[in-house]
Amino acid sequence: MASYSSLQVTIFLCIFFLSVNANEVTVGGETGDWKIPSSSSFSFNEWADKSRFLLGDFLVFSYEPGKDSVLQVTRVAYEKCNTTSPKASYTDGNTKVKLDQPGPVYFISGTEGHCKKGQKLRLVVFVPHSSAFSPAPSPSDGPAVAPTSGAAKLTSFFGVVGLVLGFWAFF
């Protein structure tokens, strides 16, 4: 009987973990090009405002390597188009960035003058509804503050224990 319960727990956990899918989102939508917007009617921020980005999703930036780059920056660097001290720098032409923290995230072009011409992106990363945390603050609320709850550690702990017990029942 105990192995039947363990089997149920294992199946449930496998289904749960398989159902938590990360999305790959191409920056800019259908056009998918990380470049200076061709008209004033397009803005990367307006595009991002129409989308919902979840923790674990991936942003895909497509651009010509050697002629452009992507910099992940702070809010202040984003506002001033400052390329001198990025949090991360990408130059490969097909960049995938995992959204691994909730709250506002900022990107600018690393090519001189491109950011001031609109090649910049601000978005907000939300925690999926199945999580124990509430959604991240909007960028206007200021910098994101890490949650102080231990619920994530607790949930992860029980998830791992459940998997170990489930697999243990099979052997």
Which properties best describe this structure?
alpha/beta; Immunoglobulin-like; 8 strands; 29% helix; disordered C terminus
Task: Describe the protein.
By secondary structure, this protein is α/β, with parallel strands linked by helices. It has 4 helices and 8 strands; from the N terminus they run αβαβββαββββα. It has a domain at 18-126: Immunoglobulin-like (Sandwich), CATH 2.60.40.420. The chain has a 5-stranded mixed beta sheet. Strands 1-3-6 form a 3-stranded mixed beta sheet, with no helix packed on it. Helix 1 (2-19) packs across helix 4.
SSE series: HEHEEEHEEEEH
Radius of gyration, taken over Cα atoms and rounded to an integer in Å: 20 Å
Structural class: alpha/beta
Which class of the domain at 18-126 in CATH terms? Answer: Mainly Beta
Helix share bin:
25-40%
Strand content: 15-25%
Strand order, main sheet: write it out.
2-8-7-4-5
Number of helices: 4
Mean pLDDT value: 77
Please describe the topology of this protein.
Layout: H1 2-19, E1 24-26, H2 44-49, E2 53-54, E3 58-62, E4 70-73, H3 75-80, E5 88-90, E6 94-98, E7 103-109, E8 120-126, H4 151-170
Helix pairs in contact: 1-4
Task: Describe the structure concisely.
With 171 residues, this protein is an alpha/beta fold.
